Amino acid sequence: QVQLVQSGAEVRKPGASVKVSCKASGYIFIDNYMHWVRQAPGQGLEWMGWINPNNGDTNFAQKFQGRVTMTRDTSMNTAYMELSRLRFDDTAVYYCARDDSSGWWGVDYWGQGTLVTVSS
Amino acid sequence: NFMLTQPHSVSESPGKTVTISCTRSSGDIASTYVQWYQQRPGSSPTTVIYEDNQRPSGVPDRFSGSIDISSNSASLTISGLKTEDEADYYCQSYDGTIVIFGGGTKLTVL
């Protein structure tokens, strides 16, 4: 069965960076794009971008361009999302989410989420 | 990019039917597929509707999706409400290669 297992909670100071991992299993990793979506406390879902694990191509929401990096390690079936120059309002649960490969950018599986807390 | 607007909250009694709307700000609602996700408290989202009106396996047929061209909106309808349906619901579509989520609707079943 498809599983996306994310790394554990992180605490960072403002201005620092954080890197979250997402290990995929149960399918061929390079066959599906991977999205990253975040959710601030009590707020809705916010799409950050996607990575094509097959070739490393990425596409980011304009809001995060210049601050987010998405990479993958195909030997480890793992996707990574790194967010730099953290601010207090980056405190959120960060999800990786597998694209369903329909061509319509839907998601069919989600990771369990990683809480990133930005605190001084 | 367009926006997807949902009501902040809806409530209904068990056994009744509720409809959650998702209105597209510009462009035709029928031009791109809409997905719907359910998120129960403390859990990751799950898909309840994809491609406007398709249900993933395991999702009860009490859940249905539709689009209305006249109001440029998509709708999620849940019939025979159960207390377990109480959750946040998000619509999602796309603009080219950009993914767009609605703001979410909190469904209370009381």
Q: Distance between termini of chain B?
A: 36 Å
State Rg of chain B. 13 Å
Helix content of chain A: under 10%
The assigned structural class of chain B equals mainly beta
Overall mean pLDDT of chain A stands at 97
* Beta-strand content of chain B: over 45%
The low-confidence runs of chain B, each spanning 5 or more residues with pLDDT under 50, are none
Portion of residues in helices of chain B?
under 10%
Q: Helix segment count of chain A?
A: 0
Q: What can be said about the biggest beta sheet of chain A?
A: 7 strands, mixed
H/E element sequence of chain B: EEEEEEEEEE
The chain pair forming the largest interface, with residue counts per chain, is: A-B, 22 and 24 residues
The succession of helices and strands of chain A, N to C, reads EEEEEEEEEEE
Radius of gyration of chain A: 14 Å
Q: Unreliable stretches of chain A, pLDDT < 50, 5 or more residues?
A: none
Envelope shape of chain B: globular
Could you please describe the fold and organization of this structure?
The complex is a heterodimer of chains A (120) and B (110). Chain A has strands at residues 3-6, 10-12, 18-25, 34-39, 45-51, 58-60, 68-73, 78-83, 92-99, 107-110, 114-118. Chain A has 120 residues and is mainly beta. In chain A, strands 2, 4, 5, 6, 9, 10 and 11 form a seven-stranded mixed beta sheet that branches. A four-stranded antiparallel beta sheet of chain A has the order 1-3-8-7, with no helix packed on it. The N and C termini of chain A lie far apart (40 Å). Helices cover 0% and strands 47% of the residues of chain B. Chain B is built from no helices and ten strands. Chain B has strands at 4-5, 9-12, 18-24, 35-39, 46-49, 63-68, 73-78, 87-95, 98-101, 105-109. The model of chain B has no long low-confidence stretch (mean pLDDT 97). At the A-B interface, strand 5 and strand 10 of A face strand 4, strand 8 and strand 9 of B.
